[in-house]
Fold each of these.
Amino acid sequence: MDLTWLRWARELQAIAQNGLTYGTDPYDIERYESVRALANEIMASYAAVDPADVRDLFACERGHATPKVDVRGVVFDDDMLLLVRERADGLWTLPGGWADVDESPGEAVVREVYEESGYRTRAVKLLALYDRDRHGHPPHPYHIYKLFFHCELTDSPAARAVDADRTAFAETDGVAFFREHEMPELSLSRVMPAQITRLFQHHRHPGWPTDFD
């Protein structure tokens, strides 16, 4: 799939956002607004979505344009990996989501794991830092960095045995541990099969350094 249009739209949006952040000349501001409108038009046209939705999506973006940060918790129990089922698409993924302002990446991933699975953990190692665009994910309007953290369970053994009861969460409706060759259908916008394979390799080789693009 040729996604050149997506790169054009995102780069134009970033140019416009930075220009609107730092520009002071009213004529320059007008030009940057025109550039943003062009980015919106490209995105809406090629993605076949309502232009108003794209305009609203980018209108709230302020300050210097940078990639967004998606944190994912990699939680093993023996040789099984923790996954959660997303309500949005009914598919499975590593627990995680956007990092929030005023929290460290480690704090963000621990929070996300708990909010989506109910498991208490501590982040112990950054296993991988990937550019989402380079790993085969479906297209996304934002440029995203994905951070995969090894998180150790701090729950008691008794607490780990109640997966079936851990379903009352806002964004997820299933929580379970899976062996490497028993993976359910994955939510590809959030995690790719090759990433799961690589994380199991990290699990078997704890001394490996962090992967990064």
Amino acid sequence: MRIDLEGVTFPYLAGQAVYVGLHGQDRRRPYSIAAAPEESARDSSLELLIGVDADGRAGPHLDLEPGSLLDIDGPIGRFTFPPAPEERRFLFIAGGTGISPLRAMLHHALTVPHDEIGLLYSARTPSEFAYEKELRSLAASRQIELELRVTREVDEWSGTRGRIGRTDLEPLVHGQATLCFVCGPPALVQEIPQILGDLGVPRERVKTEEWG
């Protein structure tokens, strides 16, 4: 979903979130901003990844109809891409909707000096991958290294399956100077830093955030 800022300046750091709700109501929920700050400034909009139920509804706090007036609070959050990283190798590891802040970081990382950018993105089923076409395009043009994997047994997927392990991360970690960002369900956020540590990545170079 894109929120039109109507020319209002809304500075934030890649990885931050906002509280969003219908105008005038108290109910609001946090959503990570899925676009890089420079993209939001260029388009005068905020892009959010919104989960919906079987009827296409986000919940009582939000109306997804075009033209709906919304209230936004923020930005919030300290899970952010550093302003001037010393590292030139970046690895993003996402589970489920954890792709949202990592997409903003990845897009921003493409604009700063870098050598390699990797993304390992895990979802329960193929239909739950957000931005799949875009990510495959970035990989095809060799702007990023990409691995997509599903964790449930489904017939319509011929790619990688199962939980993320050492053998999945090892090809994407290019030395100790890789700066890593992990966002997703609690189990993933707890397990991945340990695996990265086993691969030689110092704990201070692993940034984590739990996201449902």
